[in-house]
């Protein structure tokens, strides 16, 4: 970038910060001297001079606190919650006690410990004990000013604690000592350390070293700020509004915190299986002939790819729901790409060009679909198409209108999914978003100012898009840049305009991990970086680790060099092919992880301390540069051009993916090039990892005839191989291998629920790869044939093939 442009950008973003960021007051009026208005096992309501406190269990392991001051405008909570589904409120499993003047809510945690949340009536403060230990306490009553609510939390429990989550943020991953702002912002030149960015996920996850984990979730879409003390033990949350719901997620482990978060804000939407494939994008592939070339490039070079993105260049002068001159043949283009096994995803921005005669504009004006000023006049701001109006996604009727536009567009063109961009919302002026006083109509007679709902705008654009597609396809595919608490119900996300630098490569893993811990399981950065052109070494390293990201897409800005896997010479092309083929081998495993995310809210990519929060795993040098893919794989990618690094393996036994050599966990290792190749990857003991035996060039929508299952049994290996699922239907194999006296008992069952497409047949042939020398098989279920042979990569492992029907399967593997 030229230095003049850079300077302008810097001035612009400083002005934007000045106009949009707020300094919260240090103190306000205390919500103390309360009177009990209502007290029952489900909820206690306290009132004081300045407002009211509502406290009670939300559901299993989740406690809710509502604060509402008497100041300020109309309450949104009376009308809607955009993040939390009140239908999920089932205060089961809680007991209620009153003692003196105080109330106590009691919950038994899964580890047998008792959690007690005590509400001090007079002070209006809460304290949470786990067993005898005080875990969390409010140091002061909640406070209010005419514009703000303030909550101060203190963690009195001894021991070191780290603070994770908090949505989209650059390293360091641990937010202790930091200020984190929630205000969706299009910072198109973001640096490491900058915040706020595009998304607001006010979820703080506390993890003690060798101790419990718990979470705090703050529900309010206005401007908010978290301030953490250097030791992570004091936290202040300030929100520029006069109402707030916050929630305590009791844990006491990280996987349970994630389950509680999903029960509170919703389960991630199942995505179509092809969303797990490699995706290719640039701003912009145009005209359509260029898109055909790119598609052919993948197939001719034997590099697997599932999705090609069309950025704003496909539109007629950037008008949503139109096709420009270069894409007059778009229906033919999309038909052709489909025939080659590609899916096509097109971008949509919220801004609708002001142009009478343009259908989206005309119908929008007629329906009163746009955000207005106080006088009811549609607000105009410049974005790519020129002056635009902005759909009021807060209004359910407008979401319906937008959903109709999306559905019609997709139906006519054959497009497979929608990419929502610029939905912070972003505008081309100094403020770079809508004015604080703009009005949103949240119900027939109620409007709210933009500044109170700003962070929900992108979420509701993705919801409108998702719901529109849902009328057309059972498994919508939406990816969004801006989102808010609960966004996982509608869309996958990416981390916006990163840069083609080593620093940004290193930010990728921590960003995905914290987004995952904030409830967003399918995310990833632009591989290779958006701003600028990566060096061949940088792209090679990036595609190697990127091949294992939950969301795997290369994308770049306009005006940069080519950024396809083959753009960096034959060596990098070969590396990219190998990396992407590894991903395609892993698709059955990734699909099972997506299922787990959709059912229980577990992130696809997890920090190495996820189920072992030890001193060894809770060191930033390791947890920011390594990751678990689901429960069973650990990657320790090379983060710079050097071919060797040190990594830490959590306790237990591990095997190198490539050499299958055994490693003992709970230790640091040097990865040696020859043994680990350029992507150090490890399998955990007791793993069950399903694979495609041969990587396909795109993900088929049926199962393949063969499936490979890696079983690294120590005493009991368990897993679920998910072949097919959507919202209602499931076809899966539970796999179990248990070591007995002189043999290993192996079982593969079959689960079928709901209407699995009739053409969907489970694989005929199963290949097991087991971490033992196996001499013979004793099979107690019927099969046509079986064979066994030492694994060519490592003779201590055995390959076993069972031919049709491969399930249900039961047998003994006899080692020797
Ligand atoms: O003002 O559509 O983050 O991925 O290529 C820039 C053009 C708008 C920002 C997105 C980026 C996309 C670009 N967009």
**Second CATH tier, the architecture of the domain at 36-158 and 213-251:** Sandwich
β-sheet strand percentage = 25-35%
Largest sheet: 11 strands, antiparallel
Fold-level CATH name of the domain at 36-158 and 213-251? Immunoglobulin-like
The helical percent reads 10-25%
Secondary structure tally: strands: 52
Ligand set: ligand MIG
Show unreliable segments. none
Name of the top-level CATH class of the domain at 36-158 and 213-251: Mainly Beta
CA-based gyration radius: 27 Å
How would you describe this structure to a colleague?
The protein has about 800 residues and is an alpha+beta fold. The longest helix is centred in the last third of the chain and has 31 residues, at about 570-600. It has 13 helices and 52 strands. The strands form nine sheets. Strands 1, 6, 7, 8, 9, 10, 11, 12, 14, 17 and 18 form an eleven-stranded antiparallel β-sheet that branches. The chain has a nine-stranded parallel β-sheet with strand order 31-30-29-26-22-21-20-33-32. The mean pLDDT is about 95. Helix 10 (about 535-545) runs parallel beside helix 11. Among the domains are: about 35-160 and about 215-250, glycosyl hydrolase (family 31) (Immunoglobulin-like, Sandwich), CATH 2.60.40; about 700-815, Golgi alpha-mannosidase II (Immunoglobulin-like). The protein starts with a helix and ends with a strand. The site of ligand MIG has 10 residues, from loops.
């Amino acid at each position: 970038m030229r230095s003049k442009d850079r300077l302008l950008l810097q001035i612009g973003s400083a002005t934007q910060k000045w106009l949009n960021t707020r300094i919260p007051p240090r103190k306000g009026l205390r919500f103390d001297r309360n009177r009990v208005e209502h007290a029952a096992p489900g909820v206690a309501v306290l009132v004081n001079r300045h407002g009211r406190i509502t406290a009670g269990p939300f559901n299993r392991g989740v406690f809710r606190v509502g604060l509402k001051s008497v100041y300020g405008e109309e309450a949104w909570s009376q009308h809607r919650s955009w993040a939390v589904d009140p239908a999920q409120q089932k205060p089961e499993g809680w007991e209620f006690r009153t003692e003196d003047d105080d109330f106590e809510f009691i919950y038994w945690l899964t580890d047998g410990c008792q959690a007690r949340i005590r509400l001090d009536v007079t002070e209006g403060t809460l304290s949470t004990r786990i067993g005898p230990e005080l875990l969390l306490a409010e140091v002061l009553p909640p406070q209010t000013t005419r514009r703000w609510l303030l909550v101060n939390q203190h963690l009195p429990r001894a021991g070191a604690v780290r603070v994770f989550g908090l949505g989209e943020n650059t390293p360091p991953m641990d937010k202790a000592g930091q200020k984190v702002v929630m205000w969706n912002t299009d910072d198109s030149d973001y640096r490491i350390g900058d915040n706020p960015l595009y998304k607001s996920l006010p979820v703080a996850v506390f993890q003690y070293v060798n101790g419990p984990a718990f979470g705090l979730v703050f529900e309010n879409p206005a401007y908010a700020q978290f301030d953490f003390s250097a030791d992570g033990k004091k936290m202040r949350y300030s929100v520029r509004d006069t109402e707030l719901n916050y929630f305590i997620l009791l844990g006491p482990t990280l996987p349970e915190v994630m389950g509680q978060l999903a029960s509170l804000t919703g389960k991630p939407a199942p995505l179509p299986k092809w969303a797990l494939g490699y995706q290719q994008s640039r701003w912009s592939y145009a005209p359509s002939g260029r898109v055909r070339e790119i598609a052919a490039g993948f197939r001719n070079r034997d590099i697997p790819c599932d999705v090609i993105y069309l950025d704003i260049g496909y539109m007629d002068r950037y008008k949503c729901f139109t096709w420009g001159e270069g894409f007059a043949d778009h229906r033919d283009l999309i038909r052709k790409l489909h025939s080659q096994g590609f899916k096509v995803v097109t971008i949509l921005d919220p801004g609708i060009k002001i142009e009478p005669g343009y259908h989206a504009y005309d119908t929008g004006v007629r329906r009163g679909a746009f955000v207005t000023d106080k006088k009811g006049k549609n607000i105009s701001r410049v974005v790519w198409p020129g002056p635009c109006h902005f759909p009021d996604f807060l209004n359910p009727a407008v979401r319906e209108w937008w959903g109709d536009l999306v559905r019609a567009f997709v139906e006519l063109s054959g497009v497979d999914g929608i990419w929502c961009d610029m939905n912070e919302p972003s505008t081309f002026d100094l403020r770079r978003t809508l004015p604080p006083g703009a009005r949103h109509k949240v119900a027939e007679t109620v409007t709210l100012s933009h500044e109170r709902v700003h962070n929900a705008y992108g979420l509701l654009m993705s919801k409108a898009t998702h719901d529109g597609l849902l009328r057309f396809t059972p498994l919508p595919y939406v990816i969004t840049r801006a989102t808010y608490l609960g966004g996982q119900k509608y869309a996958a996300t990416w981390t916006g305009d990163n840069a083609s630098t080593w620093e940004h490569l290193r930010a990728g893993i921590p960003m995905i991990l914290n987004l995952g811990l904030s409830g967003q399981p399918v995310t990833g950065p632009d591989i290779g970086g958006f701003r600028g052109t990566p060096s061949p070494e940088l792209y090679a390293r990036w595609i190697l680790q990127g091949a294992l990201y939950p969301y795997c897409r290369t994308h770049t800005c306009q005006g940069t060099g080519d950024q396809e896997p083959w753009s960096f010479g034959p060596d990098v092309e070969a590396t990219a092919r190998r990396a992407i083929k590894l991903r395609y081998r892993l698709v059955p495993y990734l699909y099972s992880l997506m299922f787990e995310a959709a059912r229980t809210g577990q992130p696809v990519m997890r920090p190495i301390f996820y189920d072992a929060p030890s001193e060894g795993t809770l060191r930033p040098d390791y947890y920011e540069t390594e990751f678990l893919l689901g429960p069973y794989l650990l990657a320790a990618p090379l983060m710079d051009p050097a071919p060797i690094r040190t990594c830490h393996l959590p306790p237990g036994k591990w095997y190198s993916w490539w050499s299958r050599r055994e490693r003992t966990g709970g230790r640091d290792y040097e990865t040696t090039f020859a043994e680990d190749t350029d992507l150090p990857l490890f399998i955990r003991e007791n793993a069950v990892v399903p694979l495609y035996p041969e990587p396909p060039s795109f993900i088929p929508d049926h199962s393949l005839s063969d499936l490979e299952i890696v079983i690294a049994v120590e005493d009991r290996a368990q897993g679920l191989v998910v072949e097919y699922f959507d919202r209602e239907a499931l076809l899966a194999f539970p796999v179990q291998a248990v070591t007995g006296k002189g043999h290993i008992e192996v079982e593969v069952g079959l689960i079928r629920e709901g209407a699995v497409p009739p053409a969907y047949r489970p694989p005929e042939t199963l290949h097991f790869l087991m971490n033992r020398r196996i001499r013979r098989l004793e099979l107690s279920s019927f099969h046509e044939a079986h064979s066994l042979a030492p694994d060519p990569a490592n003779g201590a492992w055995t390959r076993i093939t069972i031919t049709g029907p491969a399930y249900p399967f039961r047998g003994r593997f006899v080692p020797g």
